[in-house]
Specification:
By secondary structure, this protein is an all-alpha fold. It has 2 domains: 2-208, no CATH class; 215-246, no CATH class. 56% of the residues lie in helices and 0% in strands. It has 10 helices and no strands. The protein has helices at 2-10, 18-48, 58-89, 104-114, 117-144, 151-170, 189-195, 198-204, 215-220, 222-229. It is elongated, with a radius of gyration of 27 Å.
């Protein structure tokens, strides 16, 4: 449902063809099946052990309901965050997106000023309510249904379900499982985004999280940085990078021009060894 919502909301960004979009939906469906199976693994294990089977024990049935409802709540909140993130930045959530939540008050204030939060929260509450009701109904149906399957039918049903479960987790019949990189088959960023499952993608990009500060490396290169930055009062113990600039008395009023730069990569400068020999400093 959220994948279709995503496409309907942002399809105006599409530049590729519809064949690629349908293929992206097929990839996305397999990612969604994988996520669903990951969530259901504890429930499946409980069903296989008679004393923990939620259909036989009311206590474990309650635990299963709570587990599924909390999982669904977290997933829906992450999907809502993903839609807002794509609307703002044109990209699905990844590990770097969590930096936006480092200060929850500022993040919520920005969201409140940028989006119709009352309507969005109302829709999310409605979705959560109906999904939770369906979970309760499903357990009621499974608990009250008559057990009319014989042993052979149960074996066949379990075997077929097992194959479907394995395929959903693996995502393909090939030797290698379905990877998030398989979604990047198109030159259209929107089609690629349509194939990604944001929650699985968020987990996959955890390895891309970079350490912001490494004190050991900073200390080992401190003398070099002192020379490079012209630090006037070096202090290796405190790792001080303070520079003292003496005041200059100017008789004539200067004409000051301030230029704001959005961002410039270090590799664009000749100081990095760029063979194009651009400007060394900015």
């Amino acid at each position: 449902m959220f994948r279709l919502t995503f496409i309907l909301l942002f399809i105006t960004n599409k530049t590729g063809n519809y064949n690629d979009l349908f293929y992206a939906l097929w990839i996305g469906l397999r990612f969604d099946m994988r996520l669903a199976c990951f969530i259901l693994i504890p429930i499946v294990i409980a069903f296989l052990i008679p004393i923990y089977n939620p259909l036989n024990q009311s206590f474990f049935r309650l635990l299963a309901k709570i587990y599924l409802k909390m999982s669904i709540l977290i997933i829906i909140l992450l999907y809502g965050f993903d839609l807002g993130n794509y609307s703002y930045l044109d990209q699905r959530i990844d590990i770097s997106s969590l930096k936006l939540l480092e200060n929850p008050l500022i993040a919520f204030g920005m969201a409140w000023e940028s989006y119709p939060m009352v309507i969005i929260l109302f829709i999310l509450v409605i979705v959560v309510y109906f999904v939770w009701r369906n979970i309760d109904k499903t357990f009621t149906i499974l608990t009250n249904r008559p057990k009319v399957f014989n042993f052979s039918q149960s074996i066949i049903g379990s075997t077929i379900s097992g194959f479907i479960f394995i395929f959903a987790i693996w995502g393909t019949f090939r030797q290698y499982r379905l990877l998030w990189s398989d979604a990047h088959f198109s030159n259209d960023p929107f089609i690629v985004a349509s194939a990604i499952n944001p929650i699985l993608y968020l987990n996959e990009t955890r390895s891309f999280a970079l350490e912001e500060f490494n004190e050991e490396k900073t200390r080992s290169n401190y003398d070099l940085m002192v020379k490079e930055l012209n630090i006037t009062i070096p202090n290796s113990k405190a790792l001080s990078f303070t520079r003292s600039i003496s005041k200059r008395h100017i008789k004539d009023q200067p004409n000051i021009v301030v230029i704001f730069l959005e961002s410039v990569g270090y590799n664009r400068m000749s100081k990095s060894g760029n063979p194009l020999n651009p400007t060394p400093n900015l």
